[in-house]
Design a protein that fits this description.
The protein is of the alpha/beta class and about 650 residues long. The protein contains 27 helices and 17 strands. Helix 6 packs across helix 21, helix 10 packs parallel to helix 19 and helix 12 runs antiparallel to helix 18.
Length: about 650
């Protein structure tokens, strides 16, 4: 796992310098602190900051092919590199290292962009072709690893993190108004947009080619759902899934350093950890988050599962004060405003992993999205059932049963339930039917924007936001499949794997690996009949069938409890951090020009009064505060790190 960066001249200009690459790499030292590498050519410069996991002594980048015509810098892991290497050697390719980076390079030499179809992994790739002076960038299928770029002053600049681009780009950072509206609606900007104007990302499942001054971006993979023409038996589905998930876990243990696992206390992470044990790993380090606030704490289940596994278990205790105090560091690494504090405890957890001497952890990420585990899927199913008899007084009561932890719903009458869940009830063919209520409720907080900022959004949109795009085959899919597409392409790829995943893990040089996001597992799940995912209101049916082979009954039967962290109590308590009062003051809000100072003053007064605070207010204060932090850190007072020093282990390769 690493970071990559680079500069390509799109027109005649002085060659990119080593000093510029050293500045870019210094900004992402946290992603790859072990060693660095730079390629310098008349038209291009590439850089890499390496977190050494495979071939610790021989895998320093950049790496070239046999005749020096192709050069690569790489961020990620290719988990099937062993098998690919054997194929390439049989075809005559000669290797100088044992790392997966070199495998990618030779596979590209053999197949060009089609090589991406063969890669089973999580990656961001940059390859310079010296023969035709072209730059090839690519990103993994669901966006586990980040990759951003910009064009300015006849240069194309790319990097794993935006801060690297800002360290050398002549263009200053500006928060994109449309992106912020998207964040306040969907929890994240919609690809290819980032939080900053003029700095898009390479979308998941896409590659980019820069050649002869032109930039083209193309898709090589997208989510598709197709139930098989000839169904298999339940036993056959279970056996195939069991085999695929076991093998996905096995190849994610490939490393020359120890591999640990996260334990949330739920089914997904518990099963992955149990499979690691089943695969013969003698020592297993597991890591969990515990909360002082019992509304969020799952430590009882984590301890029981760790005892069951016999793992070396470590826990980070996330207090309200801890979460509030570390959030400026969190937004520096996420580079995007967030509506939840959930990235904060994950930031603390990755620090614990690194403090214990580990660089790699497995997680259960992706199971809920690909196997129908979230309540939003059940909610959509209940609403469709209700829509058949929209005047029913009984059917909406199923929604109260779905959310037993929401006290207001337990005593709510039909009128309240209809007001909350009945919006668009009978529009069951709407593309966003499953998510419309969530997005509509989120978007209400856009009322907090300052008038001029809201006007800028309207001007950029030219008549309205397009919202998440859907493929042509979308309407041919089943109801659950359409909901899964939205959850995977928007929430998983754009938020969960980014702000709550890669960015807070790599802040402490920790690589997360996700067996449920193995391409074979994902595509199997997308061919699986819906009843093996959501059976009645039983979620992840097939996964539970496999889980019962390995886990205690109270774990494999356990109801899904979404990972969440406390919000307003993390920022408004007896020792409220100084930065919170400063950034939410009327003067600071007015100076940033993003939010209405009067509206924010009223919101803060409510939070400080101790009155009951609902989810909408929680998300409002988190969105405003994190936006103010991002504005201060990147727009108002961006500070570039000192360039890599002479003492840093930097490999420099020169062409021409």
């Amino acid at each position: 796992m690493c970071a990559i960066a680079g500069i390509l001249n799109l027109a005649a200009a002085p060659a990119p310098t080593e000093a510029a690459l050293r500045r870019m790499l210094a900004m992402v030292r946290h992603r790859g602190p072990d060693e660095f590498g730079v390629l310098l050519a008349p038209q291009v410069a590439l850089g890499n900051a390496r977190l050494s996991i495979v071939d610790l002594t021989g895998g320093q980048q950049p790496i070239t092919n046999e005749d020096g015509t192709l050069w690569i810098v790489f961020n990620g892991e290719i988990f099937n590199h062993v098998e690919l290497r054997a194929e390439l050697e049989a075809r005559g390719h000669r290797f100088t290292t044992h790392c997966d980076t070199e495998v990618v390079l030779h596979l590209f030499e053999e197949h060009g962009p089609d090589c991406l179809q063969r890669l089973n992994g999580q990656f961001a790739i940059a390859i310079w072709d010296q023969r035709d002076r072209s730059l090839f960038l690519a990103r993994d299928r669901v966006g586990v690893r980040p990759l951003f770029y910009t064009q300015a002053a006849n240069q194309f600049i790319f990097a794993s993190e935006i801060k690297s681009i800002l360290a050398v780009s002549p263009v200053a950072a500006k928060i994109d108004p449309v992106a912020l509206e998207e964040i306040f609606t969907y929890w994240s900007p919609l690809a290819p947009r980032s939080a900053f104007r003029g700095i898009p990302e390479v979308p998941p499942g896409h590659y980019l080619v820069a050649k002869a001054g032109k930039i083209s971006v193309r898709a090589y993979w997208q989510l598709e759902f197709a139930e098989p023409a000839a169904e298999k038996s339940a036993t056959e589905y279970e056996e195939e899934f069991h085999h695929l998930l076991t093998d996905a876990t096995r190849i994610r243990l490939r490393a020359d350093v120890p591999v640990g696992a996260y334990l949330s206390g739920g089914l997904d992470s518990s099963l992955i950890a149990a499979l690691v044990r089943q695969l013969g790993v003698s020592r297993l380090d597991t890591f969990s988050i515990a909360f002082d606030d019992q509304k969020f704490d799952e430590s009882q289940f984590q301890r029981e599962m760790a005892a069951f596994l016999g793992s070396e278990h470590q826990v980070v205790q996330a207090t309200h004060a801890d979460i509030g105090n570390i959030f400026p560091a969190v937004t520096w690494h996420t580079e995007v405003p967030v509506l939840r504090t959930a990235p904060g405890p994950m930031f603390l957890l990755s620090k614990l992993v690194r403090d214990r001497g580990l660089k790699v952890v497995l997680s259960g990420e992706g199971a809920d999205e690909f196997l129908g585990g979230y309540d939003i899927f059940k909610e959509a199913k209940i609403r469709r059932f209700w829509a058949r008899q929209p005047d029913s007084q009984c059917r909406p009561r199923l929604l109260a049963r779905l959310y037993p932890d929401i006290a207001a719903l337990q005593t709510a009458g039909p009128a309240y339930l209809k007001a909350f869940f009945g919006h668009g009830l009978t529009a069951t063919d709407a593309a966003d039917y499953s998510h419309a209520i969530r997005w509509r409720n989120n978007r209400r907080n856009c009322r907090l924007f300052a008038p001029d900022f809201a006007a800028a959004i309207a001007a950029q949109q030219n008549g309205g936001s397009a919202g998440p795009g859907c493929p042509a085959s979308f309407q041919q899919w089943g109801e659950l499949q359409r909901a899964q597409y939205l959850e995977i392409s928007v929430f998983l790829s754009q938020y969960l794997l980014a702000a709550q995943g890669d960015r807070v893990a790599m802040a402490h040089s920790v690589e997360g690996r996700h067996p449920f996001l193995d391409v074979r597992v994902m595509e199997f799940c997308n061919r699986l009949p819906a009843r093996f995912k959501l059976r009645g209101l039983t979620d992840k049916f097939l996964l539970r069938q496999v889980g019962r082979k390995y886990l205690p009954e109270k774990i494999w039967r356990r109801r899904k409890r979404p990972y969440r962290a406390p919000i307003h109590r993390s920022f408004f308590h007896a020792t409220t951090p100084d930065y919170v009062r400063e950034l939410l003051s009327e003067s600071a809000v007015a100076a940033a020009g993003i939010f209405n100072p009067v509206a924010i003053r009223q919101l803060v007064a409510k939070l400080e009064s101790g009155r009951a605070v609902g989810e909408a207010d929680d998300m409002a204060v988190m969105g405003v505060l994190s936006t103010q932090l991002v504005h201060r850190q990147f727009v108002q007072a961006f500070r570039a790190a000192e360039p890599l020093a002479a003492a840093d282990p930097v490999k420099v390769c020169r062409l021409g």
